[in-house]
From TrEMBL:
The lineage of its organism: Bacteria, Bacillati, Bacillota, Clostridia, Lachnospirales. The keyword DNA-binding applies. InterPro entries: AlkZ-like (IPR009351). One of its GO terms (molecular function) is DNA binding. Keywords: DNA-binding. This is Winged helix DNA-binding domain-containing protein.
Amino acid sequence: MNSVSLEQIRQFRLHTHHLDTWYPKKDILKAAGACGLQNSPPGAWENALYNRVAGCSLEDLRQMLEVEKTLLQAWSFRGTPVVFPASESDTFLSGLVSGQDEPWIYTQGIQLALDFLQMSFEEALALLKQVIPKLDGEVLKSKTALDQTLAEWVRPLLPEDKRELWDKPSMYGNPDKQTVGGAVVSFLLRPCAFMGLVVFGKREGISPSFTSYKHWTGHSIGGNGDPGYKLVRKYLHCFGPASPGGFADWLGCSPVQAGRIWKTVLEEIEPVSPSGRERFILSEDRELLFSPPEPERKIHLLGGHDPYLGLQDREVLLEDRARQKQIWQTVSNPGAVLWQGKIAGMWKSRKKGKGLDIEVTLWETSDGYDKNIENKKDIENLIDQYILFQQLKLNRITFITLG
């Protein structure tokens, strides 16, 4: 196996994630389709494209998502809302459909409700699939409305003795807003999304709306070839060198499902050795990995859930394990300050009135990044551009340096 350096990996990934230079607006779909854009918390996808495409505005992005519909939002990998090119729906949705005896992504927690109802997963999903086509003529204006409306549509199909249990308050933390039936539906929305039965529609105020894929796009999911094959190729291109375990973590799926999909590319991958471990790349990416283009951009302020950060080998970007815990948290990840592809600090924003307070924390590093006053000026310039993109004003910037 050929050894590959961490610097080569970072430069390779900066390129495949469209972060090595500023890309023109015509490349928005390519940037979005590289590996999809998580939209949790809301707005994460917009920040990700802002960091890749020069001169794009919020209006440009919302026009593509809500009017032109060349971009689409649906629950995808890890069960999260993801924005991707509508033309690649088969890859980001159909590619996640579970095979025989494989658990569905993001459904593990449903068992508590199913045990209460004395119902199998297959029975519950079959019932929901009977009624969810009604969304072809509906737009529901909140997630709560979606859960409860679908639960009401399912209710008449239940045996009489289960309807009372179906209507009981949820055991998952919102008993005043959600029933047991609504909770079951909520878990099953991920499989339904993968099957092209439900997508996000236009945002209504602070709430997303929901409808069917067919109602939103005017057609059913198409596509040619094996969608899982296309999905694992995207993963390897953006996150290689990688492993089947890393692929399973990125998808949020079972090792069995990840292994099944991984097998579709066995003849197109080869091993390399980063830090003495066996990992795999697409054979066609070999030259790019070992001779990546020199990045034109050196400093980035990435959002906390940017795709570039959605990797499993975190030491490639940040070796300090204590600081890894500061960047990758359970919820509310801070943004990351990148210096030549490495994480050199973090940043947070807090809305105050019609403006933002920005706090940037830089870590003392051996390359002296934090001590270069020009770098701080570059960060201030990036913040000014970000404020304009968000159509807000800047209240203040605070810099903190930590050893």
